[in-house]
Each structure stands twice: as C-alpha cells, then as structure tokens.
Amino acid sequence: MKDSKVIVVSGMGGSGKTTIVKELIKRYPNSKCLSFDDYDIDALPSAPAISTPIEIAVNQYDVSALLIDLKAAYGRYSYLFVDFPFGYKHKAIQEMVDKVIYVKTPLDICFARRLIRDFKGETTDNIQKMARHYLSFGRPIFIDYERFIIQDVDLVIDGALKSDENIEIIDTILP
To answer: Nearest Cα to 83, choosing from 158, 10, 15, 173?
Structure first.
C-alpha cells in the first residue's frame, strides 16, 4: 500500500467524535484510529491556558507524540481516522490531512453527554459547580472554538443524528 487517507473528525467534547470514529473503523476495512484523548495533550505542561484564544492556542498544543504515531501508521492502512479537535488548524499535522469532518452538536447535548460521561458518582454540589463554570466561562470558549475550527472543514455532520445516518453522509465524501 502506498498512501493512506487521513480523515480527521473534529468537534466539541461530547459532540460524538469518538462514536463516529468507532463506527468508521467498523465500516472501512484496513483502517486505524488515532485519538487526541489517548495522548493527554491537553494535560501536558506545555498546553496553553484555557483562556488563551483558540486562534493562538491551537498551535501551542504539543502533538508530537500523535504525529509520530500518525507517520508510523501512514501507508500501512487504507484509512487513518483521527479523533482530533483542531481539524486543519494545527500546523503540525495539516499537510497530512485529506479530509476534515466536523461533528456539529448543540452545546446543550454536548454538555449533557459530558455530564453523563465525566461526572458519574460526583456530588450534586460538584455538578452544580461545573454547570456554573460552564455557563460563566466555558460556553463562550466553546462557541469561539466552533466558529474558528468549522471555517475550513470539508463536511459538517449533525451530532444529534444517529451514527448510522451520519456514516451514510460521510460515505459520500470518502473515496
């Protein structure tokens, strides 16, 4: 095999990126998934402060470990599906990317999914504290993030749809 198709799936936390990538792996034989979450990139000491504007922050994230794995997998698989929030915007990997799919999901759905996924067993006080923080601080950042990332993607899908409906839409742009 000579080349791989590198397909990035971007979106907010809780948008459904990981679910879509898992379904794509099932659908497309000889494919591999690489996920931003597996590298703890946002937990590295070099990660920008959350208040840093996304236009500046995006290229401050150290994605070198992800890039090493992406290059190692390139040519060994027909498709490399990358669960990566920054679409084409991160300069370190943009040249390798063939397509970016953005999972656009209403923020209330993202919030509810993250609440269910990330706050199991938390106290009511902790959940309320997180909700207040989201409303006063997080939500404006998420709106700005989406505005920036979505500018140059190849396909926007609706994260509120069932996965199989979105996979059918994605099939129309993948060779």
So the answer is: 10
Token duo for residue 98: 């063939």
Residue 175 lies in a domain: no
Question: 39: closest CA among 64, 73, 7?
Answer: 64
Chain centroid to CA 7: 11
pLDDT digits (tens, 9 = 90+) for 88-107: 999 999 999 999 999 999 99
- The number of domains in the chain is 1
Q: Structure pTM?
A: 0.93
Its domain, for residue 105, covers 5-168
* Residue 47 forms part of a structural domain: yes
Q: How far apart are CA 42 and CA 94, in angstroms?
A: 19
Question: For position 80, which CATH number holds?
Answer: 3.40.50.300
Residue 151 lies in a domain: yes
In a domain, 174, yes or no: no
- Convert the pLDDT of each residue in 119-149 to its tens digit: 999 999 999 999 999 999 999 999 999 999 9
- Residues facing 52 on adjacent strands: none
Q: What is the mean pLDDT of the chain?
A: 94
Cα separation, 164 vs 87, in Å, equals: 22
Alpha-carbon torsion (74, 61, 95, 79), positive or negative: positive
